[in-house]
Design goal:
- This protein has 411 residues and is an all-beta fold.
- The strands form 10 sheets. The protein has a 5-stranded mixed sheet with strand order 24-30-29-26-27, with no helix packed on it. Strands 5-11-10-7 form a 4-stranded mixed sheet, with no helix packed on it.
- The radius of gyration is 65 Å and the shape is rod-shaped.
Length: 411
């Protein structure tokens, strides 16, 4: 015999542990009888092949393991095991699904001989998102109506892809651009994608606006007159503070007496005056204007024609009400040749030869006008001299009178 036994050999049962020819001998009363049996060994194990290593990524959150290169057929069973992974399904098939990194073991068993084989495959995980930094918040002002989003701190090489979107999901810059111009306030998002594992990360940045203009108040309209030779313009009501600057300018005439960068100024000419207020912090401006008029029109005045007083025309009303300004806003003053006031009406009677002056004043504007008239006189009495008298007699029945010494005409 060429086999191998273990354990007791004097019983009816013996344990063979190797292939070969085994002989059983039975003895009784000195007689022996023997028989033999051939034991053949069947210890060929099946083949377990757990497949190639693989990696979980963001493209797929699960993988199918491939044990199809293992032994297959009748009596072959499969069992997948893992202490640090996770089997989703198919643990008793050659191709199970897993969703976690780890080491997976495939046990293949041949039920015909009880032999088994084990193999392992490592599943890695690459779900690391790329770094992304959308940058600091940005501000749109009147000085800068475009804000530049800056994700430059994100850059980690040309491997990654980048995309800016607005709050509505609309792309606002070309692919792979880390900077993008925007003109509207809102939230903006920078998406970074790793094309190798499909993983993405997003960061946001807020763009705000400061375009509130300051207040500009140039004040109320006013009027220059013959007595109001300059007026003050006040910017009271405008924005005040260290960030505000002021500038007065003119349009259509005007003349500024003070430095134009003051809040309050004086002017002495009619025209439109514009106050520009600027907020140095955001560059925004506001403009208000005020109109300064001028009323320096002289009143009408007419003292009347030159007239000669005589023994018939002993008095004359100087002045012409139809050619002289009339109204409650006007005052009148008549002066004689010695500049003494004689009347306060548009016309006045005079009976003395002299030069008379009429002053008409507009009490609202202070404007005045003068005119004068000269009144002459021809009031000398004529001389009447009938000559010497005489006596009429019979011899001299007529008498010639001689008025030759009287004032001679014509009259």
């Amino acid at each position: 015999p060429d086999g191998q036994l273990q354990g007791p050999l004097d019983g009816l049962v013996a344990e063979a542990i190797a292939s070969g020819l085994y002989i059983l001998t039975v003895e009784q009363a000195g007689c022996q009888v023997a028989d033999s049996v051939q034991v053949v060994a069947d210890t060929l194990p099946p083949v377990s092949n757990a497949g190639l290593p693989d990696t979980l990524t963001c493209f797929s959150d699960s993988l199918q393991l491939d044990g199809t290169a293992s032994t297959s057929g009748a009596g072959i069973s499969y069992q997948w095991l893992s202490s640090n992974g996770n089997l989703l399904s198919g643990a008793d098939t050659p191709t199970p699904y897993v969703d976690q990194a780890g080491t997976y073991f495939l046990i293949v068993t041949d039920s015909g001989n009880g032999c088994r084989d084990t193999s392992a495959v490592a599943i890695a995980e690459n779900t690391t998102a790329p770094p992304v930094e959308a940058g600091p918040g940005q501000l749109i002002t009147c000085l800068a109506d475009t804000a530049w989003l800056d994700g430059s701190d994100t850059y980690a090489g040309s491997l990654y892809q980048y995309e800016w979107t607005d709050g509505g999901g609309q792309t606002i810059a070309w692919q792979d651009s880390l900077q993008a111009p925007v003109t509207e306030a809102g939230w903006y998002f920078l998406l970074a994608t790793d094309p190798l594992n499909g993983c993405s990360a997003v960061d946001s940045v807020e763009v705000t606006t400061d375009t509130l203009p300051p207040l500009a108040e140039a004040g109320l309209p006013d009027t220059l007159t013959c007595i109001v030779l300059q007026v003050g313009l006040s910017g009271a009501g405008s924005s005040v503070g260290p960030q505000y600057t002021y500038l007065w300018t003119t349009s259509g005439g005007g003349n500024i007496l003070d430095p134009p960068d003051q809040l309050n100024i004086s002017v002495d000419a009619p025209g439109a005056y514009l106050l520009t207020v600027t907020d140095a912090d955001n560059g925004c401006t506001a403009i208000d204007s005020v109109q300064i008029a001028e009323n320096t029109e002289l009143p009408l005045v007419e003292a009347g024609p030159t007239v000669t007083l005589n023994c018939v025309l002993v008095e004359w009303d100087v002045g012409d009400p139809n050619a002289t300004s009339q109204g409650p806003e006007y005052s009148y003053l008549w002066l004689d040749g010695s500049f003494s006031p004689i009347a306060f009406t548009p016309t006045t009677p005079v009976d003395q030869p002299d030069t008379y002056q009429l002053i008409v004043t507009n009490n609202l504007t202070g404007c005045l006008a003068t005119d004068q008239v000269t009144i002459l006189a021809d009031q000398d009495m004529p001389a009447a001299d009938p000559g010497q008298g005489g006596t009429l007699t019979c011899d001299n029945p007529t008498l010639a009178l001689d008025g030759g010494n009287s004032t001679m005409g014509p009259f």
